[in-house]
Amino acid sequence: MNILYNSTRSKSMQVTASEAILKGLSEDGGLFVPDQIPAFDKSFQELSEMTYGQVAYEVMKLYLSDFTAQELQDCIAKAYDSKFDTEEIAPMTEAEGAFFLELFHGPTIAFKDMALSILPHLLITSAKKNHIENEIVILTATSGDTGKAALAGFADVEGTRIIVFYPKNGVSPIQEKQMITQKGKNTYVVGIHGNFDDAQTGVKNIFGDKELAAYMAEKGFQFSSANSINIGRLVPQIVYYVYAYVKLLKEERIKDGETVNVVVPTGNFGNILAAFYAKQMGLPIGKLICASNENKVLFDFFRTGTYDRNREFVLTSSPSMDILISSNLERLIYRLTGNDPELNKDFMTALGNSGVYSITEAMKESLQDFYGNYADEAETAGTIRKIYEDTGYVIDTHTAVAACVYQKYQKETNDQAVAVIASTASPYKFTRSVMTAIDDQYHKMGDFELVDELCRLSGTEIPEAIREIREAPILHDHVCEKAEMKQTVMDFLGI
Question: Is-above-0.90 flag for pTM?
Answer without folding.
Answer: yes
